[in-house]
Specification:
single chain, 261 residues, alpha/beta, Ribosomal Protein L25, Chain P, Alpha/beta knot, 2 domains, 7-stranded parallel sheet, 5-stranded mixed sheet, 7 helices, 31% helix, cytoplasm, RsmE, RsmE_MTase_dom, Ribosomal RNA small subunit methyltransferase E, rRNA (uridine-N3-)-methyltransferase activity
């Protein structure tokens, strides 16, 4: 059964518009009465059927609500310093698959890539599309939000008053504090993860992170590439605090195979 994200809420009648509607109608050749899985992007999902086609839109009829366990009980935000080339595309895709709740692209001292305002907006739009496609493919009911690119200090100061969040930054100079120890000592389910660029963080940035409540942790003896570090760190956090390694939900009984529109 195909999965599609709605622009609005789940209701008795719904519409799919834009590129998704075109793909359903012209590429997938959806037929009247065909069943779809719809998600509202906020955690709700339902079974629906194709009720009609009009002016480039696909009209849907509600069938029943579904109880999916597709989202992690851990709310994880990734503060990712921008890597070289197109590696951020890969990071967005894979961390979405692993259940990240929000991705915050960050500029730090050793970030090589720099965008003007127009290019930065275009990049964020691209990453948001990648996140949406990855969310469809892996069967999520939420699409992680990709935030605008900001300098590291602004990212630290813009965290808000998340009093009970666990804040981690992965620092190659940290040799003693292990991730598993920090995770086992905390009951927090909201977790902020700061991953550096090629070249890592300088000392002033490490001090800035600590001043804003982040704890430096190590991922082990080997220095990982930036894209590897983000994925490994998120997988380890999800295994300890989230849903990685848990059994699939009963939604598989409906024959859903994670097919995206």
């Amino acid at each position: 059964m195909r999965r599609v994200f709605l622009e609005g809420e789940i209701a008795d009648t719904m519409e799919v518009r834009g590129a998704d509607a075109h793909h359903l109608q012209r590429v997938m050749r959806a037929k009247l009465g065909e069943k779809l899985l719809v998600a509202d992007g906020a955690g709700g999902s339902a079974e629906a059927e194709v009720a009609g086609f009009a002016d480039g839109r696909v009209q849907l009829r509600f069938v029943r609500r579904l109880s999916e366990a597709a989202e992690s009980q851990a709310e994880i935000e990734l503060f990712q310093c921008l890597p070289k080339g197109d590696r951020m595309d890969f990071i967005v895709q894979k961390t979405t698959e692993l259940g990240v709740a929000c991705i915050r692209p960050v500029l730090s001292q050793n970030v090589v890539v720099r965008y003007d305002e127009k290019k930065a907006r275009a990049r964020v739009e691209r990453w948001q599309k990648i996140a949406a496609e990855a969310a469809k493919q892996c069967g999520r009911t939420r699409i992680p939000e990709v935030m605008p690119i900001v300098p590291l200090r602004a990212a630290m100061e813009g965290q808000g008053a998340a009093e009970y969040a666990l804040r981690l930054f992965f620092y190659e100079m940290e040799e003693r504090r292990e991730l598993r120890t920090v995770l086992s000592d905390s009951e927090a389910r909201r977790i902020f993860m700061l991953v550096g660029p090629e070249g890592g963080f300088d000392e002033a940035e490490a001090q800035l992170a600590v001043a804003h409540g982040f704890s430096a942790v190590t991922l082990g003896r080997r220095i990982l590439r930036v894209d590897t570090a983000a994925i490994v760190a998120l997988a380890l956090v999800q295994y300890e605090k989230g849903d990685l390694g848990f059994a699939k939900s009963s939604i598989d009984d409906l024959g859903l195979q994670g097919q995206s529109v």
